[in-house]
Amino acid sequence: MKRVVSVSLGSSRRDHRVEVDLLGEHFEISRRGTDGDFQRAIELLRELDGKVDAIGLGGIDVYLYAGKTRYTVQDGLKLMEAVRHTPVVDGSGLKNTLERETAYFLREHTGLLPPGTRVLMVSAVDRFGMAEALAELGCDLTFGDLIFSAGIPYPIRTVAELEEMAARILPEMVKLPFHMLYPTGKKQETQDEEKIKKFGHYYQEAQVIAGDYHLMRRYMPRLNGQIIITNTTTADDVAFLKEKGAGYLVTTTPEFEGRSFGTNVMEAVLVALLQKPREEITARDYRDCLKRLDFKPRVVPLQ
Question: Is the residue at 303 inside a domain?
Fold first, then answer.
């Protein structure tokens, strides 16, 4: 049996464990949250190192992308460097393949993403593949990276502008403690009412809201049938989205026993299946493996 563990800076209330068969291999897949405790995450990573087949880093990014430039989050790198023997990933490799393909799937197989659809991505530098695909499909885009991560009321409208803005500010932002950029621990379970009042209209003006679920949830106002494209959703999250008035939920990762895991978990699963050194795995390797697994986005009506 192969063991894959996601170590997350998020709430331990979201912990989950499943066993599943994939391509003839039996997997135990689990998620262990550390409630925002960075040192506890390091200790847990060291404890698991060499004892499991692959590790995913949850609740934090190591790499952010804008165009061909990769930016390294210093806190994320500290976590990755705590692991010396087991392959460890943050999900960014899968975001550039699986999540990019999700946009094309929705265009080809559903009526949920016609040209001109107004899309709010709460953060695009952590999902640049999806951002590029939505732009290529002719969506009317609003990137909320500055709004929701920095509190700056400036919507970014194009991929070119996103790349330019990233080049200006990300080299310094990635040095900040990660909790200043993204909700960790208990913040994942609460909403920021002040920012909802300031910035909630961006959600309400959009037809589709895409991106990281925790960031999306923290600033989500009452909706009017919007389509949600995200992952890492539990049954409670689905209930929350229904209550808020979302129309559809599209998850980019498959559901196992009532929840979808994050891209970091699924990338770790692929690494365990591919059995190649992480640094040698290419985007084509991921695409070929995903094709064999026949992973497709899950589309769930909520109303």
Answer: no
Domain count, the chain: 2
- DSSP for 10-45? B-GGG-EEEEEEETTEEEEEEEEE-TT-HHHHHHHH
Q: What angle do CA 11, 12, 18 make, to 5 degrees?
A: 120
Please report the pLDDT score of residue 79 as a whole number.
97
- Whole-angstrom CA distances from 286 to 133, 275, 294 are 17, 12, 12
Running along the chain, 303 residues long, what does each successive block of 10 average in pLDDT? 96 91 95 95 98 96 93 96 96 87 95 97 95 97 94 95 95 92 84 94 98 95 98 92 97 84 92 90 90 90 95
**54-58/2-8 β-pairing:** parallel
Full residue range of the structural domain in which residue 58 is found: 2-91+255-296
Structure confidence at residue 51 (pLDDT) = 97
CA distance 123 to 148: 8
- A 10 A CB-CB count for 127 gives 32
In a domain, 302, yes or no: no
Q: What is the pTM of this model?
A: 0.92
* CATH number of the domain within which 207 lies: 3.40.50
